[in-house]
Design a protein that fits this description.
36% helix, 3 helices, alpha+beta, 4-stranded antiparallel beta sheet, 4 strands
Length: 107
Amino acid sequence: MNYPNDETGQSLNRLKSDGSDMSKAMKIDFFIEVPDLETGRKIEQAVAKDSYEFSIEQDEDTQEWTCYASKLIIPSYVNVVTEEKYLDLVAQKFGGKLDGFGSYGNA
């Protein structure tokens, strides 16, 4: 499976290289930067119907807020990009922005 040479494709290639089965579902964590807890809660409410596990955390050192929207999906390039675009659109409505994704894979 070849992925485009962009950040999403590179991340998927790393998961594959680490031994994950890219044809089987895995938990993908999408990171959303938000200016404050209230913004994070608004985004959480907006995506509540979409089967995400959601948490909001503040970094103790930087005081920056991050939302974690996690979902079990087949990690195809199309599936990941679709989730990224959706979450970024929702986040932007409230003053946040998508900041990538990560996963421990399924190896």
